[in-house]
Structures are given as C-alpha cells and as structure tokens.
Amino acid sequence: SDLLTIGGKTFRSRLMLGTGKYRSAEEMNAALEASGCEIVTVALRRIDLDQPKRSILDEIDWTKYHILPNTAGARTADEAVRTARLARAMGLSDWIKVEVIPDAKYLLPDPIGTFEACKVLVEEGFVVLPYINADPVLALRLQEIGTATVMPLASPIGSGQGMKTVEQIRIIIDQATVPVVVDAGIGTASEAAQAMELGASSCLINTAIARAGDPARMARAMRLGVDAGRDAYLAGRMPTLPYASASSPLEGIVR
Amino acid sequence: SDLLTIGGKTFRSRLMLGTGKYRSAEEMNAALEASGCEIVTVALRRIDLDQPKRSILDEIDWTKYHILPNTAGARTADEAVRTARLARAMGLSDWIKVEVIPDAKYLLPDPIGTFEACKVLVEEGFVVLPYINADPVLALRLQEIGTATVMPLASPIGSGQGMKTVEQIRIIIDQATVPVVVDAGIGTASEAAQAMELGASSCLINTAIARAGDPARMARAMRLGVDAGRDAYLAGRMPTLPYASASSPLEGIVR
Amino acid sequence: SDLLTIGGKTFRSRLMLGTGKYRSAEEMNAALEASGCEIVTVALRRIDLDQPKRSILDEIDWTKYHILPNTAGARTADEAVRTARLARAMGLSDWIKVEVIPDAKYLLPDPIGTFEACKVLVEEGFVVLPYINADPVLALRLQEIGTATVMPLASPIGSGQGMKTVEQIRIIIDQATVPVVVDAGIGTASEAAQAMELGASSCLINTAIARAGDPARMARAMRLGVDAGRDAYLAGRMPTLPYASASSPLEGIVR
Amino acid sequence: SDLLTIGGKTFRSRLMLGTGKYRSAEEMNAALEASGCEIVTVALRRIDLDQPKRSILDEIDWTKYHILPNTAGARTADEAVRTARLARAMGLSDWIKVEVIPDAKYLLPDPIGTFEACKVLVEEGFVVLPYINADPVLALRLQEIGTATVMPLASPIGSGQGMKTVEQIRIIIDQATVPVVVDAGIGTASEAAQAMELGASSCLINTAIARAGDPARMARAMRLGVDAGRDAYLAGRMPTLPYASASSPLEGIVR
User: Chain B contacts of D168, Cβ < 8 Å?
Assistant: First the structure.
C-alpha cells in the first residue's frame, strides 16, 4: 500500500538499480533479483545499434523490470536530447533519465545543459527523470517545467562517499512536488537508509552493488536498507536531545 | 548460520531491546515482536521486590526472550555488584549488564567504577556485559579480565544523537576478542546499520523505539537496519574514492 | 606579498564583509575596522535613491573600503541586470555581486537565472562576482564566460550552519581559474579557517559578525581565522593518518 | 587580561607545544618562537640521563619557556609515577603530564592506569596534567582528586584526524572546574580554533606543526587559530538556524 508513483506507473520497490560495472551478466542478474528492484537503468550508448552481437538488452529479462534508458555519455543538452529520441525511436521507452555531464574527472551534471534538455524533452512528451547536483532551486525549476522526478546526487558518481549533500537534499524534499530519487554516491546500506529517512522517495544504486565483494548480498543489504529507512521515516523518529534521558525512572535503585 | 554467541549461548538476532519508556505494555510487546529480538534487558530497580503488584517481569512472555538484568541506577561499583547479586539470588539470571552511572544529566558510565564492578562479578562467575564509554583501552582491559562482551555507547543514553563515536568504536572492534554491542544513542535505523557496517556484533536499542511515533514500525525498521548493516559488512563494501568513476565505459556515445 | 587579485585590483585582506543586520552604524563601523577588510558589499535596494535621508552609503567611510554593490532582492536575471546597471549609472561601481534568489525561505540562488544575468553583465563590461550554490559545473561555466570570481555558499545565507558543502567546494577550487570566495553560511571563526585551508581565496561574512554578541570581537576572530587558515594552507598540512604515530621515539623509557 | 591559570601560574598564550618529530633543532626553535607558546612539553625518556651528549634539554632556551615533563613511553601507572619522580629529582619540574599508554598502534591512554598514577602523584604534591581519552566521567573523577587540568584527546596522537570527540569534549567542558586542554589529534589551524570555540582553555600541539611542510608557518597558523577560536568564544557566536535569514530587509528591490 506504500507505493511509489512515477509518470503514472506505480511500483512497490523504492530501490532502482544501474547495470554498469558488473563482473558478469550472472552477477548482475543475481544482484537485480536480490535487490527486489523494479526499475533498471541502462546507458543507451552501451547498446550496439548496428551489430548483431549480444548487448546489455539481451542479458536482462525485461518482462521482470521496467527499463529506464539514460543518456550517460552526453556532454551537452543536444546530445542528451538526441539520445532520448533514439531510445524512443528504437521502441525502448519514452522514459528517459537525463544526464548531461561535460567533465570526466568528477562526472558532475551541468545544471544549464540539463535544464535545457529537460525543457525540450518534456515538451516532446517524454517522462523525464533528470540527474542533478543537489541544488534546491534547480530542482524547483525542473519540477515546475514538468519533470517526473528530480534525482539529486549524494556525492560524485561511483565514489561511494555517501550522503555528502544531506542539508541540500533535505531542502529539495521539503519543496518537492515530485518524487525525489537520491542517485549517485551511496556506498553502503546505511547510506541508503539515511536517504530514505530524510524523506526521499527512492534511491538509485549501481557501483556500490556492482563493486561490492559479494554483489548479490550487497543488493539484499541495499533492499533492507531502503526498507529500514522508509519504515523509520514513516514510524516517525524520536527527537534528538542535546543531553541524555534515562531509559527508566531513577527511583527504586538498590543502595 | 551467521550466529551471535555470548557467554556460550547462540542467538540468531543481533538486535537487543530495552524495556523502558514505552507508553503501555501492549506497545512494548508489539515492538519486541516486530523487532525479532531474542535478548531483552530489564532494570532490576523497576522490579518491585516486596509487593504483589504487577511489575515489568509480568508483562513479558519470558519463554520467548532471554532476560538480561541491568544495574541501571547504580552510581558506584558497590551498588552495581549488589544489584547483580540480587538478580541472581532472585533466580532471574547470572547474566548482568553492568551500568555504573554517577551523573544524572549526561548518564555517562564511570570507567573506574565499571572496571571494579566487572572484576568482582567476573570472579563471582557472572556473565558480565559492561556498558562503557567508547574507550578502546578500557574495552581491552575489560575483555582481558573476562567480560562476555563490551558495550560502548554511540552517544548519551536516550539522546538519539546517533554514531558520535565512530572512530573509537572502529578501534574497539579492531581489538576485540569478544562481541562488541553498540549500546545507547542510536536514534534511527540508518544508525543501527552504520554500527553493524563498522563490524559491531550487535546493537542494543531502547528509547529510539519506545519514543518513536509508531514503536512497532520503528522496531521493524531497526531489525531491517541491523540486518542491512550486517549484510553490507559481510558483503564487503566498495572502496571509497576521492573522485568519480563512471558507471559504464565512456565510448559509444551518440554525438 | 600574498595578495588577492580580483578584476585587476589587488588586496591584502582576504576577508570581505557585508553590511546588513548590524544593530547600529557604530557597531558596523567597529566591526569593519576590526576585521581589516578592504571589500565591503552593499545591497543596492538599501540605498534610497530619491530621498535625502541618510542611507547606508553615508554611514561608511568609502575612502577606506572598496564598494561591491550587490543585487540582493533580485528574483530573476532581469531584475539583477537592471540593478547592476543602476549601480553603475549612479557612479557607485562597475563591480557587481550577482544574486538571483527566487525564494525567501532558503534564499538559495537560481543557477539558470544567475548564469543568464552574468552572461549579459560580462558582455556589458561589468566585473562580475556571482553568488552560487556550490555546484562545480556551474562554477566552471561561469568562469568560462568571464566572471571575475565564483562565490559558492557554505550553507544557506544567515544560517550560520558552517561548511556543509566541503566536498563540492574542494572540487570547485580544484577546477578554478578565478578566485573562489566562500560566501554565506559561515558562522564562526574556525569555519572561515576551514574554508581557507581548502584553498579558497577569500571569505565573505555578514550575519556571523553582525549577530555575534560582540561584533567587533567576532570581526577580529574572523580576521584571525582567515589568516590562520591561509597560513595553514600555505604551510602545507601534515598527512591525516588512520592510526596514531608517536610524537617521540619509543625507546628509552624509565621501566 | 584573558589569562590562563594552571597550578597557580598564569600564562598569556593558550597554545602549548610538544618537541618531538622536528627535522632539526633549528626548525623546532623557529616553530616555538612563531607559535608564541609559553609551555613546552618534553618526554623524559628523550633525556639521556647518564651521558654528556647533547639532549633535547640543551636545544631549547628554557629561560623563555615553562617546561612540562611528560611520561611518554610509560605503559603502566608504576612507570608513569617513577618517571614523574625522576623528573622532580633531576630538578626539572614538579609539573608532570601523565601519559599511561599500553598500546603502540593507537597510542590511546589507559583510564585505569592514568587514574591510579594521578592519585599517587597528586598526593605526592605534583602539579598533575593527565592526558586522557575524551571521557567526561573520568575527567570529573580526575578533577575531584586534584589534577591541575584535564587533557582530553581530539583523536589519536599524531593522526591529524582533528576533532573526532566534539560531543564528549563539550560535556567535559560543561562539567570542568579545571582548565581543559585539548591534546592530540589536531591536524590544522581550523581544528585548534574549533577546540577553543567549544570553550577549551588551551590546545597542545606537536605533530601537526613538526610535520607540516613549513613548521614555523604552521606554528603561526596555530597561534592565529587558537586566538581566533578564543575570540569567537568570548564574542559569543550567532545562533545556528535551520533556515536562511536575509542579510538585509527584503523591501526596496529594483523591479
């Protein structure tokens, strides 16, 4: 009953997975299964369009997962727009995760290019999920033009540094009218739980699972972490106190 | 198969619960059940020894939980020792959680008094679980004299401030030959997960569950958080990187 | 000899002050003096253009300070551009601190509007100092179009939350070709020192001084903090070690 | 007029320096001078007692500094007590910095052994400055038996990890009746400032200066940092706000 709704579709799982960096297709599929995820993102550039050889599309049972093509590799708004159109033309999906990333060292998204690409794609009828830095005003402006989510980063892609943008994500959530998906930087399960406790609607995780010692076990840890954080958020946490507070009354001690 | 062993007994759950501060016995029992815990701690001073009226001992189905009496309220080693002896004489248990807390504002444990009480109680054959500040040398000395665990605090009792002693707990775990139970200060599920990811063997939680908006749901969140953290620890997390690292190869983009 | 150069001018002090929120003109002037600052920012909207009554411009001895008009209150690029032109037309300065802030609750800057305003103002020959969220790609794009600095925030204006954007500011500095001025959110002297230790060129501080118990003393604290951080940065700090390292050789003890 | 008083002596400087790890006596003396310190600690084991060759005692102009012998290298209370007695017998000082450190990896102090040594030495009339983990109850017990200060660590000796024990040090200061000297772990100037802003009376620093690229410059940075933090503490910092707060009134904008 606690469902996630994006672009008119509903999902039971609040954990989305990426498909890069796995050591094998078997390991990837074991992780997808253990994670309980329903949405899986795929970089369009990893799909070889002209050749008959096996691509990422053939490795995954798409009857079980909702595909979310992404524009990874696009450095400008134009490149992102063209990638999205191609994904739709191929019949993959009219959902698109917009990534506009000009720089290869930090892989941080360009707010100007991302905003431009989203404007075009929303007008063309795409369900647009933009990957952004944790900038609350950018998030506001994107939801105002009609994106289906906002996807702020926790820390740089693939860094595993965890929740380095807590205060900004807190503000984004406070102002959100669309689901907030924390995307990039989560390195371990407690960080996924922390994102959900802030009130995020979902987490998208790739490297932390693919590069764990045991990806399937880490995928399960992430599923548990997301569920733990969501439950804690809905349960309503105790107030944080500056001092201690005895667990039981102080009278009655044996002296 | 991933069992916790303390004092010769084995447990499947790595979450221990306290029994103070619940709004009702029903709420407490619902939380105990939702948590999946097997060890429950009770302050001996909350047991009315002379009177027939209903005490905390009557509220809980002790066929389902292992009782861990504690010396909450003891301000000196002597008081703690006397409380432990009384608990054993009553037939409650020869396990004892040692708390020696001289001060009511911060409720922090006394290292000198705790060490003295533990020395006496270990010699008298108790299974001793000392509650301590996150002091690695104190933890070393306690395990050397034969305590069954060490129980360092995350932050002051009942404060919900979370993991404020991460670096010290990391050292305690690195040096431990007995289970390390993080006790006091955990406020929400991600913090329980974080404790387990550091390599703690268990968490003991009271106020964060009892004072949550919905205690049973928070108890479930804590169970999931402990399991998530344990799985993440065993899976082996990705290395944390100072920079970003692309989730998929950078060639092949649509330009 | 360790000078700060902005827009062709050089400064000895690396601390800039704002002029809002002081309890009196005397208190403000005492703080300006104690801070040793050379650049002082003034909101153009606080200057009453038509009336003869005393404004902020009359309160400060402008022979001692370089004035930096700002566009505080502008919610759009257009409003910011008009404010800058007005400041120049009045003969105040062709320097302009660009603030485009659509929202009154968090007072965070709009990346899209800020970028647009800066493009126009750089082309019109202004020396442009944009106030931005700590977004490394936005900072890159602004310096590429010719802004004289970038001014990322540490945390929301007037919040005193300190350095909440450390990792992003670290990246901004790593990529910078213009001075990086940490602006907004610094609450106390150690935070100014921390900004400088990251390699920032300067700090701009207002509320933390104006709202301190003793503004002049806090102004001096900030001056010392900026100098301390700059010296530490230039001295080159020791490496951070995961373990301890004895201060002196371990042989020779009295046993 | 803002003087530090320890054991009946008053000092203007709130920065104490150690003497280990310098690359040369010249570098050490330049750092001592630049730091403005008045109290300098020396490990007694570094003083060769029987031989005529030059020791650390000959390198420093003791007419300018107050010597504080320490018991570095002592692993037990007995060894610390013997070292203190020897220092007094040599005519060095009846001040003693008590370090009881059983372990060479983390170099953390033993609370039990430290307490025992201090009890003996206070009774023998020494001015006792104990180095301790940041344990508030241990600090309380030590000041109760008559130590002249308490010296909690920020993080492990020589690690440069900075203020990892903030919350515990805050409590120690809240309860202190003697000067609190933050000792060990400070890695850079902002961290010294932060310690002073918490209300510490003084900082003792060694490795962060001795192992800086330019020790004399870092010594100056530390002096400035300590002064900045002390001024900020005395000035009274602004409250930290969860939201933003405009630096100037919001009316009057050019629209």
Answer: 133, 164-165
